[in-house]
Inverse folding.
């Protein structure tokens, strides 16, 4: 018996497809059929290799949700475990054609938000940077000579309600000292590198002597692309 090919190759998105956690993502699968194809016998299945877990299946003209792997039932949001290769297989009684697409769960980190925190006792301050992305990033701090001072810093990363990573990195410094830092954030999944340099100076000209019991302003300034100043109050010691 002569078998006649009735379907052309499956078309799937160009790999990789990148989407952030907590979002919706559509992996399309299309194919063209030739005249005479019996569409009532078409089976379309999305699977996860190598175990070929069924993500979604369509045949007899309708979705077959009871064939869906439990890990994907009633799902409304993307999560990190969804990353990997997916196969769309289109079959009938005489042939099988398929296409593969890779899904990456990732999100570029936002521009770091800079803040100065006055430490307890007011003899130190901390330069704190906040950013958000996915997955976890590596952080590095350099001083004015380019030496790595990351071990002096404190960095925390936690997941928010949508699965995005909230990153907080803090560098402490003596209150009366000027400082220069370079902050480097690396999201290797997306080959994203954020590098920002900061010059922190104490504006001593703004301090003024007052009578006992009165406080005077001490101003710390951050110089980046723009100049940001934070005014903090400290007791005047005579």
């Amino acid at each position: 018996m002569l078998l006649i090919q009735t379907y052309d190759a499956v078309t799937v998105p160009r790999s990789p497809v990148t989407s952030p956690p907590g979002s919706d993502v559509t992996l399309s699968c299309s194919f063209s059929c030739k005249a005479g194809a019996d569409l009532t016998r078409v089976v379309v299945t999305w699977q996860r290799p190598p175990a070929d877990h069924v993500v979604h299946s369509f045949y007899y003209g309708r979705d077959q949700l009871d064939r869906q792997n439990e890990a994907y039932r009633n799902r409304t949001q993307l999560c990190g475990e969804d990353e990997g290769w997916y196969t769309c297989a289109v079959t009938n009684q005489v042939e099988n054609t398929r296409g593969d697409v890779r899904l990456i769960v990732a999100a570029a980190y936002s521009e770091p938000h800079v803040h100065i925190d006055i430490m307890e006792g007011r003899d130190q301050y901390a330069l704190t940077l906040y950013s958000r992305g996915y997955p976890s990033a590596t952080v590095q701090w350099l001083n004015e000579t380019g030496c790595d001072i990351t071990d002096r810093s404190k960095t925390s990363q936690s997941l928010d309600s949508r699965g995005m990573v909230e990153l907080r990195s803090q560098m402490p410094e003596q209150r009366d000292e000027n400082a220069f830092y370079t902050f480097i954030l690396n999201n290797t999944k997306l080959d994203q590198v954020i590098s920002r340099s900061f010059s922190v100076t104490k504006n001593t000209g703004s301090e003024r002597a007052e009578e006992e019991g009165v406080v005077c302003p001490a101003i710390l300034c951050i110089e980046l692309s723009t100049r940001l100043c934070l005014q903090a109050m400290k007791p005047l010691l005579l």
Remarks:
- The first strand starts at residue 17 and ends at 19.
